Amino acid sequence: MWNVLLVEDESFVRRSLKQLIRWEDMGFTIAGEAGDGQEALEMMRTRQPDLVIADIIMPVMDGIELMKRARAEGMESSFVVLTCMNEFEYARQALELGASGYLLKLSMNVKSLEEALSKAKKELTRNMQARSQVVSPPFQRLYRDTWQSLFGGAAEGGEADIDAFAGIDNRYESVWIGSFLHGAERFSLNDVQRFIPTTPGSGTVMHSYTHFGQTSVFVWNPAAIGPRQKPDESLPWPAAFSRIADRRDMRSAWGRVLRALDTAWYDGRTGIIPIDTFEPGAVEPDSFTWRTEREWIHSFEQRRLDEFRERLQDGWNAVERRRLPMAAVKETAIRIDRILSRIAGLNGTAEEELAACTGHRQLVRLLLSNAERYAERWASHAHPITGHPEIDKALGHIHRHSHEDVTLKAVAALVAMDEAYFSGLFKKKTGVTLIHYVQQVRVNRAKGLLEQTELAVGEVGERVGFPNTNYFIKIFKRWTGQTPSEYRSAVR
């Protein structure tokens, strides 16, 4: 909403102006009235209206002089002047001084007033955008560093502090913050300004900061908080709004807004989420320890894939129970996806796809689906993983020939090592005996065939290298806890 000051010495004209249209539908709110230019100038100094609709001929100080004095004092308010037909020369002077337009009082109607306001609104928006762009660089550094301090990565030089940032003028004394969880959908300040419940105020600047599928909007020096939206409109995404906060409280205000938005992330809440019950704060130190992540990755590297799947699922269930911040959850998911895909020799899901998720369960499904794809690739392709040349050569042979008769004697001969010595070294480097390793490779390949084909159980066993159906069923159940048929039914 833009603030409007009505300046007219005839009260019935001011009354007519107020009643002629629904001002809030046009994006304006009437913030004050004055009967002459001197009174209006004093009100402008304290209220800083965005738009002044002023009569030209008034007692004490006329509209032209009001414009001159306001410009001389550096006020940025836009003007629309009211004039009669025989005062048109004054209207021309007002336009030369930068007035947005003029209205003829004798022929003023709904259409002419709405056209004047629409033009003024476009001008106000352009001016605010230009002003915001000029001062944007230090603010964007502040947003980035504050984000890092909130979500585990301390900003360079310590916690982000607005007073430590050169280039941010002290005149920006207050801020309003709103965050929207829009995912992959397009977000534009021009599109969402109607949902932002702040009255901009003269000199206001507005910025946005987008990260991980949410955009936060910052309105610096807002004049007031007004209606959030028209009764017949609803927000297109979950959102959380702060109160107007002191500049030094920007970090805590943003933290509360983002923590409130986490409610939508976990519970699927929509609309505007109250922030009163949420406290800001950095991610808990033990929220995602490298040790935990390393255990997941180690299981994957060692091809203990059932263990890996179980650990990964348990980990993400724990995240939901603890309701960790959405930003930290997404950051970890992106990192895990990137590491697993590299190990498997595949390109990971684009960061944008994970970052654009708008719910925790959606993210988990995508991450686990990717992990399964990487696991299948990792189980069916040979990759050196031990750093020992002979053992890595043996592993490559096993993965290429697991459907054939793979024996300890044959593999030891392949790498020119004593059978007993090779057996002990293999277990030391992989954690399992050679026969168990072969069984795991075959079972993992069998899982893929059971999930993706209609082949009979016996044929699946034969394809992956088991000599008969009974032995296949026995070994499959040993490693999975299910028969092949039970497994197929469970995953479909």
TrEMBL record:
GO terms for molecular function: DNA-binding transcription factor activity; sequence-specific DNA binding. Residues 3-120 form the Response regulatory domain. Keywords: Coiled coil, DNA-binding, Phosphoprotein, Transcription, Transcription regulation. One of its GO terms (biological process) is phosphorelay signal transduction system. CDD domains: REC_YesN-like. Residues 103-130 form a coiled coil. InterPro entries: CheY-like_superfamily (IPR011006), Homeodomain-like_sf (IPR009057), HTH_AraC (IPR018060), HTH_AraC-typ_CS (IPR018062), Sig_transdc_resp-reg_receiver (IPR001789), Tscrpt_reg_AraC-type_HTH (IPR020449). This is Response regulator.
